[in-house]
Amino acid sequence: MQLLHSHYNLGYWVRKGFRNRKIASNAVDAVLGWLESRGSTFRIEITVHPRNEAGLVTAERICQRWNGQIIDEFIGIELNDKTVPHKIHVIDLPRM
Fold it and tell me: In this structure, is the dihedral angle defined by the CA atoms of residues 48, 67, 9 and 25, taken in order, positive or negative?
């Protein structure tokens, strides 16, 4: 996790032949709905590489549905000893 008060980082990957079927969106909605039903407070991060246009669109739509926010600045994530900039989308549960 990149942010101090985050509980989970939610990631998803959809195989090429199965994209554009809302698989990631439906899976994320199921996970977030389950977390929200738990009755606790949670902060979930979704990190997306800025060149992953489909991933950015998916994360933005998830934020719209779940009253999330997109962090304006890029956050560096360490991958294979390199810092790679990512966009972070944050969802706080329960929704306000």
Answer: negative
